[in-house]
Specification:
By secondary structure, the chain is mainly alpha-helical. Helices cover 62% and strands 0% of the residues.
Length: 138
């Protein structure tokens, strides 16, 4: 669910409220909440409306993530989707296919959730102890 993860990243990073995004996009807030929480898939029509609430660069990234979610897992290694709207957009948003991108999303979520922050720090400490690398706190 790359689309949902990226949507959550953009919303949490900007401190936006789902009800405001739903209003801008012309989507019912409860429907957006179900999509945001991974309880409902985002259909094509809803996705097109939802994109209107974001910047052009974010639209491009969200569309790419949504398209990747449409590819069956068994075929994902055969499909490579590339954004062409803005060549610099790759630099502006996390690549969820890399460890660094996934960690960036986790870090953004952890900055607003102290329990998650503690879990991530504990994992970092355990990893550092096993690999003899000093931990680098978020």
């Amino acid at each position: 669910m790359k689309f949902v993860t990226l949507l959550q990243f953009y919303v949490s990073n900007a401190g936006l409220k789902l009800v405001d995004i739903a209003g801008q996009a012309g989507i019912h807030a409860p429907d957006l909440s179900r999509i945001y929480n991974g309880k409902r898939a985002c259909g094509k029509g809803t996705m097109i409306k939802l994109l209107q609430a974001f910047s052009k660069e974010q639209q491009s990234c969200l569309l790419q993530a949504w398209l990747q979610d449409q590819v069956p897992v068994e075929c994902s290694d055969m499909v490579h989707i590339v954004r062409s709207f803005d060549p610099n957009a790759v630099e502006k948003s996390p690549n969820l296919g890399t460890l660094e991108g996934a960690l960036e999303v986790m870090k953004a979520a952890a900055s607003k959730n102290s329990t998650l922050m503690k879990v991530i720090l504990n994992i970092a400490v355990m990893f550092a102890e096993e690999s003899s690398i000093p931990p680098n706190p978020l």
